[in-house]
Amino acid sequence: MPERTILIVDDEPDMLRLLRRSLAPDLGCRVEVAESGKAALRRISQEKFDLILADIKMPEMDGLALLELIKRSYPDLTVVMMTGHGSIETAVDAMKNGAYDFITKPFDHDALVVRLEKALERSSLIRENTRLKKERRSDNVFQKLVGKSAAMRRVFETIRMVANTDLTVLITGESGTGKDLTAQAVHAMSSRSQQPFIPVNCPTVPEHILESELFGYRKGAFTHATRNRIGLFQEAHRGSIFLDEIGDVSPAIQTKLLRVLQEKEIKPLGDTRIIKVDVRIIASTNQNLKEKIRNGEFREDFFYRLNVLPIELPPLRERREDIPLITSHLLKKHCKKLNRPLRQLSPELMEIFQAREWAGNIRELENVVVQGILFAKGEEIFPQDVGLDKKGPAPPCLIADISEGLLYKAAKEQLLRQFNETYIGRLLSQTDGNVTQAAKLCGLERQSLQQIMRRYHIRADDFRA
To answer: What topology is assigned to 319-463 in CATH?
Structure first.
């Protein structure tokens, strides 16, 4: 629970010292003081307080004037007034104007503590109510994940439950379902949220480099190791490390990771020392690890160490009711990023979206939305703007169209080539081969666009009338 803070406002320094010294330990909160109404307003504008305890009789700005200004700008802030016996009527007026309570001087200390504790409880209830209202307003967005389907609500609830533990999490799901966002959500909602979150895309790092990246190395451990280097596990100390697509790591790396999970320690390459690390491991995979275990490609003991708290993400085709929400979210995000007016999908295109299988899941949907933003001629995006009609195939630049059986690098290169040929080709068609205009449309420098065109042998002349 965050530390509670009280601001006491009184023009008598002795009273401020007495209350500050006695209330802080008895209420278990931080007590700040201000010697005038103006000083109090400055403090309130600079930091958050759970409770204001203010005297009514003060020079220049009295407590009633202070109360009026506080309630005008901070209507939910709890204010308790202090008053002498002779001004109870004034105190009652103060309550009519928004004060929560009033306390008469001289006061019994124990009674004062009880009254202020109740006032603090009121502040806590207001804060919790505000939080719940905010959650309801963004009920369909959980961290950066979007959805209202029963399947996604189960995912959100699972994230809430696992985040507050310190156990290992294994996130499974097809490519493009949001495993990276789920990992970020687990970290953001955990007690480690203020510490590093280190993502590692395992398939993109060759095995001989991955070990040194994860665990670090000592100078001279191998050729070109000219200095000591700490690994990603040490960088993630007291935070979280996200091992994306863990199913692609070799059995040798699995063995070393198993030691980290079991012993919470690493050994940098070329070092004789064992280094203790305090790291939460979050892993993900789009593969069937049990099948890989049967094939001897994945260690069974490593799997069970990873699969302590599983989170399974549903494919988009199993939560079609979320497609309008996700599409709306992506349109707002990318229209802003691409500096375009906010667009919307035509009813015909939305019908197609909800009928598609989306083999590439949200990532594939996002690709199509970005194309629509770029190529739509008006406020609405139509099927023809993204190369779709009710009978037509998916645009050739989407992940779903990559040939199966390719090695990672070849598949990646094919995807990039298809995307650039289609994307840049449409830009050049739209601008009649004008590279400068095409560069402005896609937010690139002219030289950068030309460099990409040269790499993929795209000629502007082919698009000139």
So the answer is: Helicase, Ruva Protein; domain 3 (1.10.8)
Match 């759970």 to its residue by tokens.
50
pLDDT in tens, 146-170: 998 999 999 999 999 999 899 999 9
Quick one: pLDDT at residue 2? 63
pLDDT the model gives residue 397: 44
| Alpha-helical regions (H) of 307-377 | 323-337, 347-355, 361-375
Q: What would the mean pLDDT of 255-281 be, rounded to a whole number?
A: 90
Cβ–Cβ < 8 Å for 308, 170:
yes
* Sign of the CA dihedral with 15 first, then 16, 22, and 23 last: positive
pLDDT at 242: 96
Q: Which fold has domain 5-135?
A: Rossmann fold (3.40.50)
The answer to whether the CB of 22 falls within 8 A of the CB of 110 is no
Measure the CA–CA gap between 99 and 102, rounded to whole angstroms. 8
Crossing angle between the packed helical segments 361-375 and 323-337, to the nearest 10 degrees: 50
Q: Can you give the residue ranges of every domain in the chain?
A: 5-135, 142-314, 319-463
Listing DSSP states for 393-424 in one string gives PPPTTSGGGSPTT--HHHHHHHHHHHHHHHHH
- Length of the chain equals 465
Name the percent of the chain in helix, strand, coil, to the closest 5.
50, 15, 35
Q: Are strands 101-105 and 78-84 parallel, antiparallel or unpaired?
A: parallel
111 Cβ contact list (under 8 Å, min separation 6)? none
With a pLDDT cut of 70, the percent of the chain lying above it is 91
343 band by pLDDT with thresholds 50, 70 and 90: very high
Top CATH class of 142-314 equals alpha beta
Under DSSP, the state recorded for 6 is E
